[in-house]
Specification:
By secondary structure, the protein is an alpha/beta fold. The chain is built from 16 helices and ten strands. Strands 1, 2, 3, 8 and 9 form a five-stranded parallel sheet that branches. It has a five-stranded mixed sheet with strand order 4-5-7-6-10. Helix 2 packs parallel to helix 4 and helix 13 runs parallel beside helix 15. The protein starts with a helix and ends in a 10-residue tail after the last helix.
Length: about 475
């Protein structure tokens, strides 16, 4: 008797009591391999079911008898493993659509999630990207109270450490620092959560990663990193930068848009066998164009929780999984270098977006430097370019700055870049004018040497009144 018979039965019974029992049988057989248990009771059930099928089919009472036999043999061992089901909604910012569509997609998704939380009292939800919370604040502020309440309850997990799920190759360290800074400040104020609680960077769809990414993240307060694309190495590992900085990283093995289905149990066992943990993570929910967890997903989780020969399946949070992973951190493999990259061609398309991103970052950095110098000298109050930085950060989304977006998205980005340049250019000009006006040039009028005048104290920082 081999597993081909099980596969044939599963094709014959894709749902109903047959699916329930055969899924538990599959899990029991894999459990025997991993935990070195006696597989004979499971094979006995398989032989009996195969014989019944050859004789004409399996009725409900026979399925129940098969489940009872599996339960008697394996129920206690089965529950040793846990699957944390973390629902989320992947919302692509202006990918194959424009801003006018991104906003209602976000609001509709969150409205659905909040309604499902009323219906399923144990349901937990995880959501990244500070930009989607800003959409709520701007366009549906009445929804914020409900979100804040769920955050306080621990049922709405904030997985945002960055303004958007940004590209990790074309975004330099200064911009990464801005993502971390502005996201923490904004969400701490908006949702009333402590800054130190934002320790997870959730980036499922990022196309690739530069080797120094762990440095920027670790020094910005990020401890845990979740991704899907890039590299085919271990699932759970310590990602180390050339600087020696590390983040505990999880590479999604089953895709971040997966539904709740019976095969999650065996996949969880495979992960546990690889890592030595007894807890596995299952991220689910309709995404790209929003959507999030479905009622079917939530119903299945509650149903699977009652199956006797299955792992302990429950609603959970992503940070809960990472805390479990921390217990074996020292035993995990170390990965060094870049994790790159997919979608050949993206990085050479939509050159106008890339040019705008580059020039805006450069101009913003210059403007802040000159403004800081003027403020240090007491020549003008320090200004802020946070509102100018945020459109740049938004357009560093992995489908925008890379160029895998539609024309409407590109044109919106180009318009925002003009506004950014105007704001940064104005600040730089005002700061330079203030500095220039403060330079004492009175001693230059008689033709004395400029260098000698400056050495005697003229100029900013050397005697400005």
């Amino acid at each position: 008797m081999d597993l081909r018979h099980l596969s044939e039965l599963q094709k014959r019974y894709p749902d109903g009591p047959g699916c329930r029992v055969l899924s538990q049988l599959h899990y029991a057989l894999r459990l025997c391999e991993i935990d070195n248990l006696d597989p004979e009771p499971a094979y006995s059930v398989l032989r009996d079911l195969a014989a019944l099928q050859r004789e004409g089919g399996v009725d409900r009472s026979q399925w129940q008898a098969a489940e009872q036999a599996l339960s008697d043999a394996y129920a206690a061992a089965a529950r040793r493993y846990t699957v944390l089901c973390a629902g989320h909604a992947h919302i692509d910012m202006n990918w194959m659509w424009g801003w006018d569509e991104t906003v209602p997609v976000t609001l509709d998704t969150f409205e659905t999630v909040l309604k499902l939380m009323e219906e399923f009292p144990d349901f937990t939800f995880s959501q990244s990207q500070a930009s989607v919370y800003e959409i709520v604040e701007r366009f549906a502020p009445a929804m914020l109270d409900a979100i804040r309440r769920r955050v306080r309850e621990g049922r709405w997990e904030v997985t945002a450490s960055t303004w958007v799920e940004a590209d990790r190759n074309m975004v330099p360290a200064e911009s990464v620092a801005r993502h971390l800074l502005y996201t923490r400040r904004y969400l701490s104020r908006l949702l009333g959560i402590p800054i130190e609680s934002m320790a997870l960077d959730f980036e499922p769809d990022t196309f690739g990663h530069g080797a120094h990414t762990p440095t920027a993240l670790a020094r910005g307060g990020v401890r845990w990193y979740y991704h899907c694309r890039g590299d085919e190495g271990p699932t759970l590992y310590r990602w180390r930068a050339p600087s020696g900085d590390e983040v505990l990283s999880y590479r999604e093995p089953d895709w971040y848009l997966g539904p709740i289905a019976p095969d999650l149990a065996v996949r969880a066992l495979d992960f546990c066998a690889e890592t030595g943990l007894t807890t596995a993570l299952w991220v689910y929910g309709v995404g790209d164009h929003g959507g999030g967890p479905t009622r079917r997903d939530l119903t299945r989780i509650t149903e699977y929780a009652d199956w006797p020969v299955f792992p302990t399946i429950r609603f959970g949070r992503i940070d809960e999984f990472f805390r479990q992973a921390e217990t074996i951190r020292d035993a995990l493999p170390v990965v060094e270098g870049e994790l790159n990259f997919v979608f050949t061609g993206c990085y050479t398309s939509q050159t106008r977006i890339k040019e705008g991103n580059y020039h805006c970052q450069k101009l913003l950095t210059q403007a802040e430097a000159w403004d800081a110098l003027a403020a240090i000298q007491g020549l003008r109050p320090a200004g802020s370019l946070a509102d100018a930085w945020k459109p740049v950060l938004f357009n560093q989304f992995h489908d925008i700055v890379t160029g895998s977006c539609v024309i409407a998205t590109r044109e919106r980005a180009m318009g925002e870049y003009q506004q950014v340049k105007a704001r940064a250019g104005a600040m730089r000009s005002q700061a330079l004018r203030a500095i220039a006006a403060a330079v004492d040039t009175s001693s230059w009028a008689d033709g004395s040497d400029t260098a000698e005048s400056l050495s005697e104290g003229a100029g900013v920082g050397f005697g400005v009144a």
